[in-house]
């Protein structure tokens, strides 16, 4: 008798009409075959879907160029479909599931004609973890199939795990004809189902990532008492060999990958990487929060990545371990057949073509690599991957950092007074937009917990869920707000960031250990500058002080914006947050 997986795959094939159905086993040999099939069968642009890069200097690496209109997440085309509109909240685009399915059925009829449909069985989370989830995605794009092999734990063992049962998340993906007019990313959280047509871009097409591990999973977490978050997970080992684990939420393209694997400017600390984008947080038997990374790879922003900013990522990309490493929409040096992007090295002396393959030099004034060009590479290539990365129970979390990209107002670091105040801090967070999503860059928008594009249900209820999780934890982690991006009057960054962020992490650990005091401000507890280890940094003390300046007069617009953002959520905003808001507003006036 056919299993539930087989039945569903047959149903999808009957609708989409692929030439062949190919069940993937997740092996390396198969990944090679899929890439060859992609090159011979698919046309995305005038270029091959993949081209081999210099295998001596970039082992196992390939270049992929996307359709030129398909380069970032498209939030305006992303929908969360519940029968009840209020459930999706003002933070999501909504359609009734019936209407959404009718629309998607129309677009999908025959959309895989003449193509291969790949069936991808994969786990989100370490295979033996009680928190991991079994999933099946189908796709008609070799690039998506191979990317999913890197980003998830894929293999026939997942089919065995599902067996004849129905307990798996379904993802139906097709690029259709790439038309932005027929591009939709539809989520059906009540059915653990994602249906995405028209885009091959990571955040829209690798359905285990944002679509399942954040939007659908956040709704599962709400119902079953856990959290799915847009967070880094990292270990910090001190000189005595004690490792403490933290998570950090930051919006897309705001340095999560750099933080996750930073090379510490303080030699007495070293970092161990568990994840750079998504954390699933569960309450452990000892009342602490435990984190697992559902992913198995990095889908990182290339521009700005270099030996100076993130040496461990450069080493990860060069490691000759897992097959393959993909570069998407980066520039190419034709002389050496190596990938290149802004911030990687000096372009002089290179024979560069831009991300679309056109000859390029700096005098053109354009970007050679697309600002949201990416690499996709295995987590297991990382030289500082934590030995806890596959721990089925995850790692216990001592601190949660909540970040944003703010040129003004927000201090380098501030400790929340308590858990509800930490939730308030997350709920009022704003950040300047980046190229990771289609739309204008550099515009300030509210991005609570860096989850605005990813919270799969009413965000007011999500805030309440955060408050409740704190109540359920006997030993909740402390919550800190961080901001590496504050600028001076000339618009220059004040804080050096990157490896020097270890100085902030040290202060956080010192606070947890009760080794240092703090100064109370209306926003939370900030460091006495004497307690920050600043040796080797050429920043005058008053400049460091300016990173913590809270100037009440500057806060009126910010407070008004927070209120305006919360207003449409009405009764869904928890009282604790309204109270914390009033308290902060009063303190800023005093
Ligand atoms: C990502 C994103 O790709 O946040 O991780 O957009
Ligand atoms: Mn992300």
In short:
The chain is α+β, with helices and mostly antiparallel strands and 590 residues long. The chain has 16 helices and 31 strands. It folds into 2 domains: 4-36 and 74-225, Phosphoenolpyruvate Carboxykinase, domain 1; 228-295 and 387-589, Phosphoenolpyruvate Carboxykinase, domain 3 (Alpha-Beta Complex), CATH 3.90.228.
Observed structural traits:
single chain, about 600 residues, alpha+beta, Phosphoenolpyruvate Carboxykinase, domain 1, Phosphoenolpyruvate Carboxykinase, domain 3, 2 domains, nine-stranded mixed sheet, 16 helices, 31 strands, globular, binds oxalic acid, binds manganese (II) ion
Number of strands: 31
The main β sheet shows up as: 9 strands, mixed
Terminal Cα separation, in Å?
A: 72 Å
Based on Cα principal axes, name the global outline.
globular
Give the CATH topology of the largest domain: Phosphoenolpyruvate Carboxykinase, domain 3
Task: Tell me what the CATH architecture of the largest domain is.
Answer: Alpha-Beta Complex
Which spans of ≥5 residues are poorly predicted at pLDDT below 50?
none
Strand content: 15-25%
The unique ligands bound to this protein are: oxalic acid, manganese (II) ion
Percent of residues in helices comes to 25-40%
Question: Structural class given helices, strands, pairing?
Answer: alpha+beta
CATH C-level category of the largest domain: Alpha Beta
């Amino acid at each position: 008798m056919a299993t539930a997986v087989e039945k569903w795959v047959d149903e999808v094939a009957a609708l989409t009409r692929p030439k062949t159905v190919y069940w993937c086993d997740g092996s390396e040999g198969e990944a090679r075959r899929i890439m060859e099939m992609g090159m011979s069968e698919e046309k995305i642009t005038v270029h091959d879907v993949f081209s081999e890069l210099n295998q001596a200097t970039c082992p196992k690496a390939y270049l992929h160029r996307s359709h030129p209109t398909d380069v970032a997440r498209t939030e305006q085309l992303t929908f969360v479909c519940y029968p009840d509109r209020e459930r999706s909240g003002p933070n999501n685009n909504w359609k009734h599931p019936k209407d959404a399915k009718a629309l998607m059925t129309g677009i999908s009829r025959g959309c895989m004609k003449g193509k291969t449909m790949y069936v991808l069985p994969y786990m989100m989370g370490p295979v033996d973890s009680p928190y991991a989830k079994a999933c099946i995605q189908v796709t008609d794009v070799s690039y998506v199939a191979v990317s999913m092999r890197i980003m998830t734990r894929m293999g026939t063992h997942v089919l065995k795990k599902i067996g004849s049962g129905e307990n798996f998340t379904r993802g139906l993906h097709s690029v259709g004809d790439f038309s932005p007019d027929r591009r939709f990313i539809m989520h059906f959280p009540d059915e653990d189902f994602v249906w995405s047509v028209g885009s091959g871009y990571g955040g829209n097409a690798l359905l285990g990532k944002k679509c399942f591990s954040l939007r659908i999973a956040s709704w599962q977490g709400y119902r079953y008492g856990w959290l799915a978050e847009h967070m880094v997970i990292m270990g910090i080992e001190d000189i005595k060999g004690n490792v403490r684990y933290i998570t950090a939420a930051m919006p897309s393209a705001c340095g999560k990958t750099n933080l996750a694997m930073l090379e510490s400017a303080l030699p007495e600390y070293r970092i161990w990487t568990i994840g750079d984008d998504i954390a699933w947080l569960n309450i452990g038997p000892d009342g602490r929060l435990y984190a697992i990374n559902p992913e198995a790879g990095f889908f990182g922003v290339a521009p700005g990545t270099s030996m100076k900013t993130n040496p461990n990522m450069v080493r990860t990309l060069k490691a000759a371990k897992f097959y393959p490493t993909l570069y998407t929409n980066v520039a190419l040096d034709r002389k050496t057949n190596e990938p290149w992007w802004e911030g990687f090295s000096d372009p002089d002396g290179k024979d560069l073509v831009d991300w679309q393959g056109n000859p390029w030099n700096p005098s053109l004034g354009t970007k050679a690599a697309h600002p949201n060009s990416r690499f996709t590479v295995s987590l297991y290539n990382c030289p500082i991957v934590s030995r806890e990365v596959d721990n089925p129970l995850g790692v216990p979390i001592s601190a949660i950092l909540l970040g944003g990209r703010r040129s003004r107002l927000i201090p380098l670091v501030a400790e929340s007074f308590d858990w509800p105040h930490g939730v308030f801090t997350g709920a009022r967070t704003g950040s300047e937009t980046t190229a990771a999503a289609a739309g204008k860059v550099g515009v300030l928008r509210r991005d609570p917990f860096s989850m605005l594009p990813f919270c799969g249900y009413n965000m007011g209820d999500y805030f309440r869920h955060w408050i409740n999780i704190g109540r359920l934890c006997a030993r909740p982690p402390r919550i800190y707000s961080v901001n590496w991006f504050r600028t001076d009057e000339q618009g220059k960054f004040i804080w050096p960031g990157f490896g020097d962020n270890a100085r902030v992490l040290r202060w956080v650990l010192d606070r947890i250990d009760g080794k240092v005091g703090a100064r109370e401000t209306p926003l939370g507890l900030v460091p006495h500058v004497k307690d920050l280890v600043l040796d080797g940094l050429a920043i005058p003390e008053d400049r460091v002080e300016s990173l913590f300046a809270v100037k009440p007069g500057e806060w009126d617009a910010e407070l008004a914006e927070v209120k305006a953002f919360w207003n449409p959520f009405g009764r869904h905003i928890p009282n604790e947050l309204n109270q914390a808001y009033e308290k902060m507003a009063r303190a800023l006036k005093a």
